[in-house]
Amino acid sequence: MTINDVSLTHHDGAEAAGLLEELSDAYADSYGVEPGEEKTAAFRRRAEKQFSRPGFALVTARNGGRLVGFVFGYTLPAGDTHWWGGVQPEPTAEFLEETGSRTWVLSEIEVRRAWQAKGVGRTLHDTALGARGEERATLATGPDAAAQPVYESWGWRRVGRIPGDEGDYYSAYDLFVLELPVTR
């Protein structure tokens, strides 16, 4: 199993909604949890809200028809600075400005455990971000997420930490930014 055994497909929000069961199954597998567990249920709730957001895009990776990984995200709307709310250290007003075409949120990037460390995640990442027209991308991770060094090796830089909201998986999140276009 190598990255050469995987086919990539771009999807819009309507197509993503039709793939929710497969996405949830792959998400659960990537974390080694059962599809019905709370972590997967929380993923489903987040995903359903995002499918209709402006700039939503999904890229799937398949092997023999089976979903082995995916990445999706959306564009921050003009004037919406909620994403950056409470970030410390506090950035400049210019950094926080959203134009509706400035920042794409990389919301999820997941790869089934059997396909991890085979280049699928990096390929999904580069394919999704290579198709974007925004100036930058952002993502949020748990403060001790094992993926942080991976993101940093892909060129992401940590810009600060925000408090989690009521009911969030983590009480705080580290925010990262990557200038677009992606260069490798």
TrEMBL record:
<feature type="domain" description="N-acetyltransferase">
    <location>
        <begin position="1"/>
        <end position="183"/>
    </location>
</feature>
<dbReference type="GO" id="GO:0016746">
    <property type="term" value="F:acyltransferase activity"/>
</dbReference>
<keyword id="KW-0012">Acyltransferase</keyword>
<dbReference type="InterPro" id="IPR000182">
    <property type="entry name" value="GNAT_dom"/>
</dbReference>
<dbReference type="InterPro" id="IPR016181">
    <property type="entry name" value="Acyl_CoA_acyltransferase"/>
</dbReference>
<keyword id="KW-0808">Transferase</keyword>
<dbReference type="Pfam" id="PF00583">
    <property type="entry name" value="Acetyltransf_1"/>
</dbReference>
<protein>
    <submittedName>
        <fullName>GNAT family N-acetyltransferase</fullName>
        <ecNumber>2.3.1.-</ecNumber>
    </submittedName>
</protein>
